Amino acid sequence: MHLDDMTDTELWTLADAMMDNLMAASTAIDHAGHTRDFTPRLKNLVTPEYLQQVCRQYQQEKGFFTQRSPVALFRRPDSVAFVWRQGFSRVAGDYVAELVLVHADEGWLIDHVMVF
User: Fold this and answer.
1) In terms of C-beta density within 10 A (0-12 exposed, 13-18 middle, 19 or more buried), how is residue 106 classed?
2) What is the reported pLDDT for 104?
């Protein structure tokens, strides 16, 4: 389905499902699961060793992901950027979770994702 044909609700549903998978796979340090919906460009950047290093660091410092609530989505000509308010189990405060989806032959893929 083309970006212009999707409602904000449909886009949030898609992005939330992908982010749920990313966070579950990140918690388990499951590289195959974590990169399942990545573009080839992003898969090349997120090696198993890199994912393990990043996950161990955030888990030690901040704990695990807790509640996440949508803040905004940004429609672009060829992508959609999503921003959530994100919590962690070991530290107080609000963090930012963001994800960029692009449409490819395989369907919607994640081209950027970060929690900071």
Assistant:
1) exposed
2) 87
